[in-house]
TrEMBL record, chain A:
Entry protein name: Peptide/nickel transport system ATP-binding protein/oligopeptide transport system ATP-binding protein
Region listing for Disordered, in residue ranges: 338-367
Residues covered by the ABC transporter domain: 24-274
Organism per entry: Kribbella caucasensis
SUPFAM superfamilies: P-loop containing nucleoside triphosphate hydrolases
Keywords: ATP-binding, Nucleotide-binding, Transport
Short name of one Pfam family: oligo_HPY
GO biological process: peptide transport; transmembrane transport
Automatic annotation (TrEMBL), chain B:
Cross-referenced InterPro entries: BPD_transp_1_N (IPR045621), MetI-like (IPR000515), MetI-like_sf (IPR035906)
Protein name: Peptide/nickel transport system permease protein
Taxonomic path: Bacteria, Bacillati, Actinomycetota, Actinomycetes, Propionibacteriales
Subcellular location: Cell membrane
Gene Ontology biological process terms from the UniProt entry: transmembrane transport
From TrEMBL, chain C:
Protein name: Peptide/nickel transport system ATP-binding protein
Gene Ontology biological process terms in this record: peptide transport
Family assignment from sequence similarity: Belongs to the ABC transporter superfamily.
Record-level GO cellular component terms: plasma membrane
Example GO molecular function: ATP binding
UniProt xrefs under CDD domains: ABC_NikE_OppD_transporters
Subcellular location: Cell membrane
Domain named ABC transporter: residues: 10-258
Membrane-protein topology: Peripheral membrane protein
PANTHER family for the chain: DIPEPTIDE TRANSPORT ATP-BINDING PROTEIN DPPD, OLIGOPEPTIDE TRANSPORT ATP-BINDING PROTEIN APPD
Coiled coil location: none
Keywords of the record: ATP-binding, Cell membrane, Membrane, Nucleotide-binding, Transport
Length: 367, 341, 342
């Protein structure tokens, strides 16, 4: 715990990270939603939405969480922004443990961590003007602005590519892409350090989507923003991310930098996911190796034991049903949770095997 | 699944009993406290029981026997005990047994409340049953036609009449129709001539036809508007497009797919309305002088006759709670998605 | 674009909706042909008219407020001028449709089996028992496990992918000659999308039907379609084989779509190249070429794009494009400006 500078406004215990240093770290992050049944509403089980995540986010990067519906990526985003209370684990932001921080103590922190939502219309109050929507964070956080809130809001509107004259208009007067810009302007009002963006472009048409993606990139560069991007579109993710975490049934199965994840995926699920995406290229169509997963994602209420992917995995063997593969580093910056990784050298295969023997997995440890 | 259904019903019934206790306790407190705040003593309350000519001593004795000196909680407890196991009243001249469910004796008429209620339930039941069938059929039919011919002359006319129906109070429409159909044209019997169905079905219907129509007019208007809104929404659903894409006849699309979807919320409101009416259609019964629960309640309130008021309140609450439960169970029958929960 | 073998022929189709704000020209002069056994992909963004086109072919805009003109010939029978009843008898039987969101497209109160049986019995005079047997066969055919049990399940008891399979079973129950799939995989997860696309492909080769697949996802059409039609503001602006569209696109709007699209199959370090501006209002469609306000090349043709609407013309070997630019200008722009940045 060192306070690096003598900034009088700095909160004690806060470490202001530089670009490339750790901004956020997450340990064993878990969220179980209890299921209650019967006369006395006893808890009979839990939806294991997020189950023991470990990852860090460094300042200035974009980390994407990808996976199919029910993998827990949205829940994770809500845990990071503390819209949901974690059941277990630790979230550390700038050196402070914010896992169970009270609402009052969280308030200054809410300036630093902001969220962008998928549905640009649903997240904007239709009865408020753009000026009021974008200016709301100033009022909520009682922030003093130099030339008044209106000026600040108009600057924000210009920043996201809207006209300052839009100040007095209402959300319904805008197209989907413009509404998402309004949402982004609101998010930027308090100059956050971390933005959790939940499917920020998936409701938009492809040409508009490109505009918003470029905007997010420009803003990141200008303000040293850090993004945690939650997305299902693997093409968009490849374009915007520095690192990617692939989730399956509440767990991270692979976490790697963009290039090695897309070029040399090690977890079979990642491989299947990537090969399932249709590619707009006729030449590659016939050449591509296709992996077709059978069946559906199992229920997060009773996820399969040990490796949760073993029920749909073509490489699964007996050990996959008994021992949970830990998420271990197999190459620099490339973590994977699989006993039989893809694209692996013999040494990497051996490492994966050995990890399974020495670390019998969290499930067994708990038992 | 049956196991969970039974658990569900049991849970609902337990909740219902809790609700009945709360409702009766609140009613009890109101009608117990209000006269006392207004300055009434146990003696003045007992006075109503024994009549003006009684001696002071008799009054005191009566007040004591009725438990009017007891604190409110004890009085409520005794009343509630009477409902569950019955009660015994000692009038000096001998002990009178009031079997469960004992709702006490009217302060005014000295008659036990429960048998009086039993006499009045069929009247209210007849009124509610006839009216609800009428308004359901007409309201839904008009609503569906309006939705399908949205913007047409029929739609606009129907919705204007419906608006009038919702806004006009029942004593207004009731008195007008009484004046016109009964007194002027002589087509129907005037009020106050209720005949039980089992005695003479024709006279029964004749006495009730005007109240039915009056009540149904009010409710049809509401139901037509609700059905219209529901149908407009449902006919825009994706599954309607699918039904058309299959090549179904438009009539089947409307009835089997559209109406089936639109009726579910109406069913809920219907159940609650019928439950509410069974507790007494106060204005209608009063307007047409029908000796039902509503009129009984009004008479009780006017005379500050606590046992009557409590009795009607309890019966009405039971009807509403039961209607609620039945609606929720029916919901699960109609909508398979509810069953899963 | 006349084709004697065409099973479906659309000629100068126009679908206009009168509204309080003015006439919405959702589809405004669209023509194309489709043969049996072939798949046509219709690509476009929201408001391009792709869904309205499919609903008009199915006759689902009949009887509403839409003003429809032009011709839709299904196996020689003209549908626009046919009565609602005549078209209804073809719907579900000779042409069928599957929709984007299978959850909302199925009636929540009826079992999946009931809904398939209903579709079958409208056009086939058989008993319920026979129809149920057929429904179970269809569910089996589209890959639903334990079809004899699942036939009695309700839509909400199915997963998203299973529901879309059931929708396909329903659409194919009467063995239609034309299947229209409107964004069939947009609501599905990517691994499930792959399963459904495979299924549509397999079933097409088995039933030899004509398929129209409507989507905003260029990847999906690349996987499935023999021919692709790109739509903008109610008209086709480019038509060709998948190779034509992806390897040598001719229209600046198509370039814009390709440039806007992030790639999953290669490292693309260049920024995305969005199309400037927003799609036009369908009430005030720009004069001339509807794309001209957003086009980077509109200045090259001496203002023609602002006054004159370009026709969809064959630029060689069936690759059609509606653009005022000369083939040389298009070739140059594609080779130098666009292709290197993708």
């Amino acid at each position: 715990m060192t306070t690096a500078d003598t900034d009088p406004t700095a909160v004690p215990g806060v470490v202001e990270p530089e670009i490339g240093e750790e901004l956020l770290s997450v340990n064993n992050l878990t969220k179980h939603f209890p299921i209650r049944r019967g006369l006395l509403q006893r808890q009979v089980g839990a939806v294991q939405a997020v189950d023991g995540l470990d990852f860090t986010v460094t300042k200035g990067e974009t980390l994407s969480l990808v996976g199919e519906s029910g993998c827990g990526k949205t829940t994770t985003g809500r845990l990071l922004t503390r819209l949901l209370e974690p059941s277990d684990g630790r979230i550390v932001f700038e050196g402070r443990d914010i896992t169970h921080m009270s609402e009052g103590k969280m308030r200054p922190l809410r300036r630093d961590v902001q969220m962008i939502f998928q549905d640009p219309y649903g997240s904007l109050n239709p009865r408020h003007t753009v000026g009021k929507i974008v200016g709301a964070p100033f009022k909520l956080q009682k922030v003093q602005t130099e030339n008044g809130v209106k000026k600040a809001v108009q600057e924000l509107l210009e920043l996201v590519g809207l006209s300052p004259e839009h100040y007095n208009r209402y959300p319904h007067e805008f197209s989907g892409g413009q509404r998402q810009r309004i949402g982004i302007a609101r998010t930027l009002a308090l100059r956050p350090k971390l933005i959790v963006a939940d499917e920020p472009v998936s409701a938009l048409d492809v040409s508009i989507q490109a505009q918003v993606v470029n905007l997010l990139e420009d803003l990141q560069e200008e303000f040293d923003l850090t993004y945690v991007m939650i997305a299902h579109d693997l093409s968009v993710v490849r374009h915007v991310s520095d690192r990617v975490a692939v989730m399956y049934l509440g767990k991270i199965v692979e976490l790697a930098d963009r290039v090695s994840l897309y070029e040399k995926p090690m977890h079979p699920y990642t491989l299947a996911l990537l090969s399932a995406v249709p590619i707009p290229d006729t030449a590659r169509k016939s050449k591509r190796e296709r992996i077709r997963l059978v069946g559906d994602v199992p229920s997060p209420i009773n996820p399969p034991p040990a490796c949760r992917f073993h029920t749909r995995c073509w490489k699964a063997q007996d050990i996959c049903k008994v021992v949970e593969p830990p998420l271990i580093q197999l190459a620099p910056g490339h973590q994977s949770a699989c006993h039989f990784p893809e694209n692996a050298t013999p040494e990497q295969e051996a490492t994966a095997m050995k990890a399974a023997e020495t670390n019998p997995g969290r499930d067994s440890v708990k038992a | 699944m049956p196991g969970t259904v039974i658990t569900y019903i049991v849970r609902r019934l337990i909740a219902a009993i809790g609700l009945l206790i709360i409702v009766s306790a609140i009613t009890f407190s109101i009608f117990y406290l209000v006269p006392r705040w207004a300055g009434a003593s146990p003696e003045t309350l007992a006075n109503r029981y024994v009549g003006r000519a009684a001696t002071e001593e008799t009054v005191k004795l009566t007040a004591e026997r009725l438990g009017l000196y007891d604190p409110i909680a004890v009085q409520y407890w005794n009343w509630a005990k009477g409902v569950v196991v019955g009660a015994e009243y000692d009038y000096g001249a001998g002990v009178e047994r009031c079997p469960a469910p004992c709702l006490g004796y009217s302060f005014i008429t000295k008659q036990p409340v429960w048998p009086e209620l039993l006499d009045r339930i069929p009247v209210t039941l007849s009124l509610a049953a006839g009216a609800s069938i009428l308004w359901l059929v007409f309201g839904v039919a008009i609503g569906v036609l309006s939705a399908l011919r949205r913007g047409s002359i029929f739609d606009r006319a129907a919705m204007t009449v419906a608006l009038a129906g919702v806004s006009l109070p029942i004593f207004f429409t009731g008195l007008i129709s009484l004046a016109f159909f009964s007194y002027r044209l002589g087509w129907t019997k005037p009020g106050g001539t209720f005949v039980p169905l089992t005695d003479n079905p024709v006279l029964w219907a004749q006495a009730l036809i005007l109240p039915w129509i009056t009540l149904a007019f009010l409710f049809s208007a509401q139901y037509a508007r609700l059905t219209r809104a529901g149908m407009l929404e449902t006919m825009n659903e994706d599954f309607i497009r699918t039904a058309r894409a299959k090549g179904l006849k438009e009539r089947n699309v409307v009835v089997q797919h559209g109406l089936r979807g639109a009726l579910t919320p109406i069913l809920t409101i219907f159940g609650l309305d019928v439950g509410l009416l069974l507790g007494g259609a106060v204005l209608t019964e009063k307007t047409f002088s029908l000796p039902g629960l509503g009129k009984y309640a009004v008479d009780g309130i006017v005379a500050n006759d606590l046992p009557k008021i409590l009795g009607v309140t309890l019966v009405a609450a039971v009807f509403i709670v039961l209607a609620n439960l039945i609606v929720d169970l029916l919901y699960a029958v109609v909508d398979p998605r509810v069953r899963a929960k | 674009m006349t084709n004697d073998n065409a099973f479906l022929s659309v000629r100068d189709l126009r679908v206009h909706f009168p509204t309080d704000d003015g006439l919405v020209k959702s589809v405004d002069g669209l023509s194309f042909d489709l043969e049996r056994g072939k798949t046509l992909g219709i690509v476009g963004e929201s408001g391009s008219g792709k869904s309205v086109t499919s609903l008009s072919i199915m006759g689902l805009h009949k009887g509403g407020s839409a003003r429809i003109s032009g011709e839709v010939l299904l196996d020689g029978q003209e549908l626009v001028s046919s009565s609602s009843e005549e078209v209804r008898l073809l719907r579900g039987k000779r042409m069928a449709m599957i929709f984007q969101d299978p959850l909302s497209a199925m009636h929540p109160y009826y079992t999946v089996g009931h809904q398939i049986i209903e579709a079958y019995r409208v056009h086939n005079n058989v008993s319920k028992a026979v129809a149920k047997k057929h429904a179970i066969e269809m569910l089996d055919r589209v890959g639903i496990p334990q079809p004899d049990k699942r036939v009695d399940a309700y839509p909400h008891q199915f997963s998203g992918g299973m529901r879309q399979r059931a929708m396909i079973a329903m659409a194919l129950s009467c063995d239609p000659d034309l299947l229209i799939a409107d964004e069939p995989t947009t609501a599905l997860d990517v691994t499930v999308q792959a399963q459904i696309l495979d299924l549509i492909r397999d079933l097409q080769s088995e039933f030899n039907s004509a398929v129209i697949i409507i989507t905003h996802d260029l990847g999906v059409v690349a996987e499935l379609a023999d021919h692709i039609q790109v739509m903008y503001a109610g008209r086709a602006i480019e038509y060709g084989t998948a190779e034509d569209i992806f390897d040598r696109p001719q229209h600046p709007y198509t370039w814009g779509l390709l440039g806007s699209m992030p790639r999953i199959d290669r490292e693309r370090t260049e920024r995305l190249i969005p199309i400037k501006g927003t799609p036009p209002s369908l009430i005030n469609v720009p004069k001339g070429c509807a794309f001209n306000p957003r086009c980077n090349y509109a200045h090259l043709n001496g203002g023609a794009s602002e006054t004159e609407r370009p026709e969809l013309l064959d630029s060689g070997a069936g690759h059609m494009v509606a653009c005022h630019l000369s083939p040389q200008e298009r070739q140059k722009a594609w080779e130098t400006d666009i292709k290197p940045k993708l």
